[in-house]
Each structure stands twice: as C-alpha cells, then as structure tokens.
Amino acid sequence: KFIPMEEEYDVIICGTGLTECVLSGLLSVNGKKVLHIDRNDYYGGACASLTLEQAWKYFKLKGEPTENLGTKAQQRKYSIDLLPKFLVANGKMVQLLLHTDVTRYLQFKSVDGSYVLKDSKIMKVPATEKEALTSSLLGFFEKNRFKNYLVFCNEFDEKNPKTHGGLNANSDTKSLVKKYSLDDTTQDVIGHALCLYRDETWLQEPAWKTIAKTKLYMDSLRHYGKSPYLYPIYGLGDLPQGFARLSAIYGGTYMLNKPVEGFAFDDKGHVTGVISEGQTARCKAVIGDPSYFEGKTKKVGEIVRCICILNHPIPNTNNCESAQIILPQNQMGRKSDIYISCVSFAHEVAPANIYICLVSTTVETNNPQKELQPGINFLGPVLQQFWSVDPMYEPINDAKKEGIHISKSYDATSHFESISDDVIRIYKEITGETDVSYLFTPKEKKEQAL
After folding, report:
1. 407-446 pLDDT, tens per residue?
2. Which residue, 312, 336, 260, 190, is CA-closest to 36?
3. CA-CA distance, 220 to 230, in Å (whole number)?
C-alpha cells in the first residue's frame, strides 16, 4: 500500500540494522510514532543474513557458487550472516528480547562450547568450579586460585561489604588479580574469555565491573550448561525483523527501498524532517547508522572479517557444531583479540555437515588479511572464503542540539553486549530518561508488577 511521507512522526529511523530495529521496537512500545526507512530492499543492513547466491554477489565474486558447496538444492539451505554474533544467555540483548516478547518470533539454540588459546592450543574455557578443577588449561595450584576467584565473584554483593573480602570494589582490577595471585593464563581466561574485554586496558577497569562481568558469564552458563552463548535457528537475520514486527504492532511504519536524500532543519539547526524522493517526512528526531550521516561521524578504525565455509568441525573443539574461540591479543603479539565464531547445519544455516565460521579482529597494520591468517589457520581446510574490511565510525555531532542520533559501527567482538550498550545510549538520548532498568525486566514479571 502507498504510505504518504507528508506526515509528522516523533522519530524517523534510517537503516534497518539491528541497533536501529531494536530502537524502533522499543520506541514504538514507548508510545512514539515511528517511521523506519531503508535505502536497501531488504532488512538487516550490516546484520543481514544472505543466501549463498546473495553472498556471492555481495562479496563481488565471479561466476556462480561452486559445486564443492553442495548441489543447487543444498545451496538453498545456506543462511550466511554478514555479522555473526552470539547472544550472552543472561546478557542485555536477551533481556531486551524478553522485555519486548520478541522471543515469540525466534527460536534459540545454545552454542556448544567456549574456547581460548593457550600455548598455541585451543582449550575449553572452564567457568564452573567443577570444570576449573578438571581443566588442562590451568596448572594444579592455579585451578584452586581460579576456583576461589569464581566463588568470590559468585557471592559478591555490592551492597554487602561482608562479601567483599577486604577488597575496595572501586579499586582497579589489577588489585583483584593480585588478591588471588592469578597468573598470566588465568588472567587471559578471566579478562578475555569470561569478561569479554577486548584488550589489556581491562586491568585498569574498576574491580566491581570485572566481578559483574564474571558473574554474568557464570549466570549465563547456568542457563544451558554447555556455554553461556545462544544463537537463533535460521541465523541472525530474523533478529532485526523480530523487532521490526514489534514496531509494526505498535503502529510503526516501514518503507524499504527508500533513498534518503537529505534532512530539513529549523533556524536553530534542529532536524525537522527527512527528505526522500522529493517529499519531506516531518519529525522531532532522527536515528540512523553512520552511512546516512556523512560529515557527522569520525572513523575510529577498521574491522577485518573473513567468513569461511568448512565441511568439518574446527579441530580441537571436540567436534562442536558451534563454538566461540577467543585468541587473546598478548598471545598473538597484538593489541586486540582475534575472535572466531562457528555455527552450522545444527542451526539450520547450512546443508548437512557444513560449518560457517567467522574470523574477525580490529585492523592494526596495512595488511589486514595477514593479521587474520593466524586465526584462519586454526580452522583447518576451508572450502570458501568471503573477505571484507569495514570502517568503524562513531558520531561526533551534537545530538542534543541537532536531534540526530547516530549509532556506532559494529565492532569485531562475537557477541552483542556492545550493540546493547549503544541501543541504551540512544534510547536515553531520545526519551530523556536516565533510569531505563525497566527495559531489562522480562514481560511476565512486568505484567505481574502491574
């Protein structure tokens, strides 16, 4: 049906990436009148899931998909995420899904294992007291120290000083590490694999923050036992669409294949509308990804990613059908970690016995492919590779003055926690609310409270 642009909206959102779709859903539920437009003719933006044929065209490969990737019928079973990321089972994105009841549109499956590099070998991450004692990742004495650290984090209550064991929770993480005499390997496991910090600056973070991240990992692990991560059946493409459906239920309007030609402003420089195909849709605020706002963002780095298709599980992962592997930066002689994520036919994203892996990191040299090669080497034989190097942008505009709220580019991490933080940042800017803890209350509890 034809939807007139000449209407007034509270918010117009440009782009249907995950950040934008989550905000569209949350703001519509909040009572805002939302128009959501995208220059593409598909949902998801940088978070889209593509068929094998679409991926071939997207990455500008010559010819057609090769026969070693399956028959024509088998090739139709591929759903390749441009940006594969896992959900931390008890993390912010899952809490947003539960709060909005978007979970009704999706099915999830737990990821089989979480792994970390030690002495050039991939080893399973222990995150329970029992696993810590049996793991070959840690030495005999170190196992006990790691167990004591986990017990301390589990019992830690910010409001109860008796659980602090004499530690000043506002002191840096280095003092927490010193308290338990944790060696370099254990620090790698805690900082990079459990707490998901991206570089060595985590030791300067406040101790309470590291304790909270460790607790999140353990709480998430308790949900499913194998690992703290979840992944949607049929891939991530349904995630932005789930929030888009939510927005539509609450009156949100969607228009795909709609170019954005510019913005209208009042005499004070505040946005008053979005111009598309000669029409102006009026609004009080605009949200969008960096690609819509040239000159209002700054480049803060680049991400190199390689999607690899395999016909075998990743070696040394106990034949896992899905896994996350973190290669800590200090073991790779780098400043930032290398991330490997693996999903497969078990998640209905590939034909039988086919695995789809993503290797990614932050670019540090002028030879990004060479930087990623050590991670790819852990995969064994690869049937097909899809390479990309994408710039990372952050907003530099005055959002309060202009009413233009720009999301950040997606980082190299293989989980959604940083995207969730960006959603909350923009949601607070738009609504003016400072306490948004209600967004992390599951719908059932919310209704009981009413």
Report:
1. 999 988 878 888 999 999 999 999 999 999 999 987 665 4
2. 260
3. 10
